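FAQ: What does a multi-protein file look like?

Like this. Sequence, then tokens, then the next protein.
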Amino acid sequence: MRKLGFLIYISILMVSCSSSHNKNAKKDVTDYAKTITVNELKDMLYTYASDEFEGRNTGEPGQKKAVEFIKKHYQDNKIPSPIAEGDYYQEIPEAYFNGKAKASENVLAYIKGSEKPDEVIVISAHLDHIGISSNGEINNGADDDGSGTVAILEIAEAFKTAEKDGNGPKRSVLFLHVTGEEIGLFGSRYYTDVDPVFPLENTVANLNLDMIGRVDEKHENGDNYLYLIGSDRLSKELHEVSEAANKKYVNLDLDYSYNDINDPNRFYYRSDHYNFAKNNVPVIFYFNGTHDDYHRPSDTPDKINYEFLETRTKLIFYTAWELANRDERVKVDLKST
């Protein structure tokens, strides 16, 4: 009986030690990516692209509600601003918009790098849309660019969770929500040309999310995909990091059709990443392509493919993670055109 009791004691001890070891096992990037979920993306987007936000026209009351929504998310998750404590708004005066809009603001939050805090990865999306049509219909802009906005909020949460575990990024990661995109890329231009909170020479890369929640006609009968634009225009290494992250973690169909220099759509010049690219900051523009609801009241949250959006958001998180944690920043080997 004594021997049996001793064996039971040893067994309990081994199980206890094993359990303790598993609890203390260091998490990796895939654990943090799991915090990016369909349910959270959907819940946020149904609010952000609701009629309450009145189409988020630059400088108008609906856009002010949008920036408050974004700010509150960062405050609730204890993700600080790089501007000043509690100050998440980069104010842009009315005069800057040349009569196209009233005064507006970008929203900035960040995770400070643990080893190279002065080097920064910028993840951007535009917070504005086109407002209310002349017939009174609200343009909710669920895909354009509600999808990119809520994706950044989820990516920020994932990085914050890693930081809480003592596994924060080596480089700083800036979550940049820009205004005035729909009327001429004003918010991103203000950040790059007037008030770059992080100097552009210290900006490693910009990952720009603009319409990543839908499926275009070309891919209607296929697997999950995403158009990538600009990834190899300034840095071959950036393109290689992006490809490797996709292959290792999610294996989306990456479509480079719009990356052709002779692309008649000229999408490379038409979203906020371009204001970084023109300053020789390597960029990737993530895009699902156009659809019949583009810039129409019918761009509503019920038409988003949330499973696709979750995986696409994870890809961008994984890519940002690799850029933020690799030993050397990606090299710029080409010049902006």
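And here is the next protein:
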Amino acid sequence: MLGLIADAVDDRSARGIAAAVSRLVSAGDLPTGARLPTVRDVARALGVSPTTVSEAWQSLAQAGAIQTRGRSGSFVAAPVLPRGRMRYARLASGLGNVTRDFSTGVPDHDLLPSLAGSLARVGDARLTTSYLDAAVLPPLETALRQRWPYPPDRLTVVDGALDALDRVIAAVVRFGDHVLVENPTFPPVLDLLEAAGATVVGVPMDEHGMRPDALGAALTAYDPVAVFLQPRAHNPTGTGLSARRVAELAAELAAYPQVTIVEDDHAGAIASAPPVSLGTQLPDRTVHIAGFSKSHGPDLRLAALGGPAEVITAVADRRLLGPGWSSRLLQAVLLDLLTSPEAAAQIEAARDTYTRRRTTLLRELAERGVSATAADGINLWMTVEDEQAAMLSLAAHGIAVAPGAPFCVTPLGADHVRITVGLIHDDHAELAGIFAAAARAGSGGGTRARPYPRGWR
């Protein structure tokens, strides 16, 4: 094993050693449970100091790739991020007796299309007769391709957008790789990348999404393997990419063919903005994820994944060793919903309702001098003087919102909270007053009114 590790290391820095060992683990050359050579033995074989190897081992342990058991040594372990360290676990406030929970980021159940008709129509379908059938129902694949923002090489269906992100990360990211994300971004993406041992770099945003100049600087400085984007209804800010911004970002990425572009279009049909994708400019490098949880129902557990055959095939082949495919019964329900005029009308009504709820609360907050963004989707990103004070103030009213810190790779220069505005029905004025007081909590009464939160520009 010592010789295997020594032969795999071509960069003798701590990061290089950790990356080489991680590649051996990922390839199965160092199987789970294998005992690693001692720090001193590795240092002697590589001609480096024990401190350098110790730093590499610490990085691997932090990422969950190995376990250190004191005098017993260090062992290869499947990377698992403890729940207490997950950003996702910190989104719920955990403060007070919550009577109105706006921390969840979930759609309004009453605005989801009814499944009754779809379930009745597919209930007697013969969809489970063979393990060898195609992973995606052919009619569903046809319907998805018709909706795709660019022609993908290959398309498959997985168990939701987060499952898609997890599987794509496993296919394209290795320990120590640099990965670019929007700052702020969806916390589970950061959890997944941390579990993979990636070095995450946050790229600043403005009102149109990731800034092209900041992307260009990060590409030059970090030589990343992937960039993760939300093309519309960005969670948490609600921003979306314009056609012009898509072209600008694609121009920055054109000179970096090694970078895979991963787009999470999680809001789907409830987004007010039309579908956009860098795949229209760079189709051979863009992996697009189309989510249906927020538009058609979280319990459908379905998302479509399309893009370069190399990536999609790697995901599909790996699934053969696990679930194999996503339920064809649920796929048939989704197909029925996608082709049902009644469901389309219900989703259009939901989109209009979410738009009204966002714009109403934004207007009420602006009248009270509070800075917030919510251009699309179901979330609102509110600037506050002090995050903890704001959440304590809201908890006193039985209201829970999500803290802003877990969304941020690096601080933005102002504190924020995320409010699931899509769950707010008719009490916008009352809530706006409570939110405004919370935004000022801990500030001595002052307010700041900016069109976009400090740190975006």
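Q: Is there any per-entry metadata?
A: Some entries carry free-text notes. For the entry above: The domain at 85-110+343-440 is CATH 3.90.1150.10 (Aspartate Aminotransferase, domain 1).
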